[in-house]
Amino acid sequence: MTDKEIQLNETENARQYLLMGVIRSRSEVRRNIEIRLDERLEQGMLNEAVRLHDECGVSWETLEFFGLEYRYMALHLQGKISFDEMRDTLLNKIRQFAKRQDIFFRKMERSGEKIYWCREGADTKYAYVVHAELNAILNANGRDLRGSRVYVS
User: How far apart, in whole angstroms, are the C-alpha atoms of residue 146 and residue 149?
Assistant: First the structure.
């Protein structure tokens, strides 16, 4: 990717944006999702839901609308499902969501959006740095950047 000219996408009102993604194998994505979910559970994700309900007065019904994790944590904390059922269902649902995201980005690409895909590893740092630098430039003054260059070391 470093040898290629970066092409910005453009919206109907001439706003420019850059789409970048990191390519990982499906098995790696699935493994990372499981590791991250287990880490979050170990770090007290359930305690946060308990605190919101007990100390802040957030109803179980409202918690279910906060998102996928909160929905299943609320069900578990009400005794409707076991911890293992909550964890396994969340794992499955998060993996399904990740697959839908992948399909969405592939569809964008097929419809003509330019997405710069980087492999995990050395290219990943480059992708994040370029993305951060370009977003800073685009958001600083909104000027047209055609023909501009971004240099990253």
Answer: 9
Residue located via tokens 């290219």: 123
Judge whether 152 and 129 are in contact, CB under 8 Å.
yes
CA–CA distance, 56 with 92 (Å, rounded to integer): 29
Q: How many whole angstroms separate alpha carbon 31 and alpha carbon 25?
A: 10
Cα gap 120→102, rounded to integer Å: 16
Q: What is the pLDDT of residue 153?
A: 39
Instruction: Provide the token pair at 131.
Output: 């993305």
Q: Averaging pLDDT over each range in 13-17, 63-67, 129-133, which range is the top one? A: 63-67
Is the pTM above the cut of 0.90? no
pLDDT digits (tens, 9 = 90+) for 41-83: 999 999 999 999 999 999 999 988 888 899 999 999 999 999 9
Residue 53 CB neighbour total at 10 angstroms: 19
Contact 36, 47 (CB under 8 A): no
- Please name the amino acid found at residue 106: R
| Neighbouring C-beta atoms of residue 99, cutoff 10 Å | 13
Round to whole Å and give the CA distance between 136 and 7.
Answer: 17
